[in-house]
Specification:
Layout: E1 3-7, H1 13-21, E2 29-34, H2 41-46, E3 49-57, E4 60-74, E5 77-89, H3 98-110, E6 117-123, H4 127-132, E7 143-153, E8 166-169, H5 175-185, E9 192-193, H6 195-199, E10 213-218, E11 221-230, E12 236-242, H7 244-258, E13 271-272, E14 274-282, H8 287-303, E15 308-314, E16 328-338, H9 345-349
Length: 361
């Protein structure tokens, strides 16, 4: 049957949810993202403007590819970025022309849009996606510019907290100091968002509120900030298969749960209850404040029966060493980018700190 490519509509919701379940991610652990009941929830958060294209055969959706546009910081400038997302091909159509045709359709329809740079990320070792962006038939290629670690920490209550810091929920009065900290902390990270827009109340009714931020305060000054985000109502990570490493961690966690030390990691076929932690920054020289804030979040996550706390940090980010926790798994993501306006841009970015928000994927 002929393959047709078209923009997705709300009527495709159920088919796209099924397609996602059929396309698990393989790595240290194999899992898929269950986006029921609203597949498009994450798309609405990914940018100020977005589109999703689907490949259809005989009325059945067999592939998808999306793009979201947003402002981002790149090499000290604010640029308009096109972020490629939702690259999904049904197993029976891998190796066919579906992926290429989706990419070509997206490129032909979106190339006239005003954007400075385009970006995509994938699990390290996902060769099929990598080959897709090598440049064919006039479609620009993407360049590997760096890696991001997705750090998954098994939370535990048995961490001691220091008393120097007051840890509390943020309020609207904290908006400006939080923005200043975020701008300062991510100034050197390529693809970081423009935070005043990110935090403006009411900008997007789907976005988590200012109260989702926690601050570590001392002597009336906010020294560290982190946002915690429970996405369980519209995004769940379902385990397909454990690796040797995660099987070992599962066993350790089960033993730990007996003495109320850790939550037990679920078996294959079950969902992970994950707490996303984003925007983890601290004032210069206040790294311990951020560490204490993360320890506080772990304790709260344990109390609320989360299986994992998930953060994403650039490979070069010095804050990675601050992420506490004896039981953690790092999953590497490779970030690619290209530019129609300045082909030299990826070379200038390579090796710098990369911002990637896995909570929106």
């Amino acid at each position: 049957m002929a393959i047709s490519i078209r923009p997705a509509t709300s009527e495709d919701n159920e088919q796209l949810i099924r397609l996602t379940k059929a396309c698990p991610m393989s790595g240290v652990i194999s899992l898929y993202v269950d986006r029921e009941p609203d597949f498009f929830f994450l798309n609405r958060l990914q940018g100020e403007e977005w589109r999703l294209y689907v490949a259809e055969v005989g009325g059945e959706i067999v592939g998808s590819l999306g793009v979201a546009y947003r402002k981002a910081r790149v090499l000290g400038e604010i640029m308009r970025m096109a972020y490629l997302t939702d690259v999904k091909i049904a197993p029976a159509y891998r190796g066919s022309t579906v992926a290429f045709r989706l990419l070509r359709e997206l490129y032909e329809n979106e190339k006239e849009k005003e954007f400075d740079i385009y970006v995509c990320s994938t699990l390290k070792g996902n060769d099929q996606v990598i080959q897709l962006f090598q440049g064919r038939a006039g479609i620009p290629s993407l360049t590997n510019v760096g890696e991001v670690s997705v750090v998954n920490v098994i939370p535990t209550y048995w961490f001691r907290l220091r008393q120097q810091w007051r840890i509390r929920r943020a309020t609207e009065h904290d908006h400006q100091p939080i923005v200043e900290l975020l701008e300062s902390g991510y100034r050197s990270h390529c693809f970081a968002p423009v935070f005043p827009n990110q935090l403006t109340p009411g900008r997007n009714h789907d976005s988590p509120p200012i109260a989702s931020y926690l601050v570590a305060e001392r002597n009336g000054e906010i020294e560290a900030v982190a946002q915690k985000w429970d996405q369980g109502n519209y995004k769940r990570l379902v385990i397909v298969r454990h690796s040797g490493l995660t099987k070992s961690l599962q066993l350790v966690s089960q033993i730990g749960s007996i003495v109320h030390l850790t939550p037990p990691i679920p078996s294959a076929g079950m969902s992970l209850k994950v707490l996303q932690v984003r925007h983890t920054v601290c004032a210069k020289g206040r790294e311990e404040a951020l560490r204490q804030l993360l320890l506080f979040i772990y304790r709260e996550a344990y109390r609320n029966s989360y299986h994992a706390v998930q953060l994403s940090m650039a490979k070069e980010d010095g804050l990675q060493k601050l992420v506490p926790g004896p039981l953690k798994v790092k999953i590497p993501l490779v970030v690619y980018c290209g530019s129609l306006k300045d082909p030299t841009l990826p070379g200038k970015i390579k090796g710098l700190c990369i911002y990637e928000d896995v909570s929106l994927v």
